[in-house]
Amino acid sequence: MTYYLIKIVVTSALIVAISEISKRSSFVGALLASLPIISVFAILWLYIDTKDITKVSTLSTNIFWLVLPSLVLFITLPLLLKHGHNFYVSICISVGATICCYWVMVSILNHYRT
């Protein structure tokens, strides 16, 4: 149980730290957010939990392919905001577009894995 609490605290602290740093410097916040810190921790936790290199390799590969559709959020959100759309509407549209792109990518990956 202590191990799970450590995982939750470390991961949550990273998100809060990035949010707080972003208030002072959006560039430094963006730099930290763009680093694959959460992915590295997920890979680390998986290895510590399983010691299974195959699972770690598979997770890393899957993260790579699923980063691509996530980029849609970072393209659509600033475009919508720059065109004067409401923040909440813009974030909802951006998340929706990203979900659609995830669905397309997962469909493509499933097609080529079978």
Please characterize this protein's 3D structure.
There is one protein chain. The chain has 5 helices and no strands. The protein is mostly helical and 114 residues long. It has a domain of 62 residues. Helix 1 packs antiparallel against helix 2. The longest helix is centred in the middle third of the chain and has 30 residues. It starts with a helix and ends with a helix. The model has no long low-confidence stretch (mean pLDDT 91).
List the helices and strands and how they pair.
Elements: H1 2-24, H2 26-34, H3 37-50, H4 53-82, H5 87-113
Helix pairs in contact: 1-2, 3-4, 4-5
> Biggest β-sheet: count, sense, barrel?
none
Structural category is mainly alpha
Shape: flat
Tell me the strand percentage band: under 5%
Our Rg estimate from Cα atoms comes to 17 Å
Helical segment count = 5
Distance between the termini: 38 Å
Low-confidence parts: none
Helix content: over 70%
Helix/strand order, N-terminal first: HHHHH
- What's the β-strand tally? 0
List keywords for this structure.
90% helix; 114 residues; 5 helices; single chain; mainly alpha
Gist?
This protein is mainly α. 90% of the residues lie in helices and 0% in strands. Helix 1 runs antiparallel to helix 2 and helix 4 (53-82) runs antiparallel to helix 5.
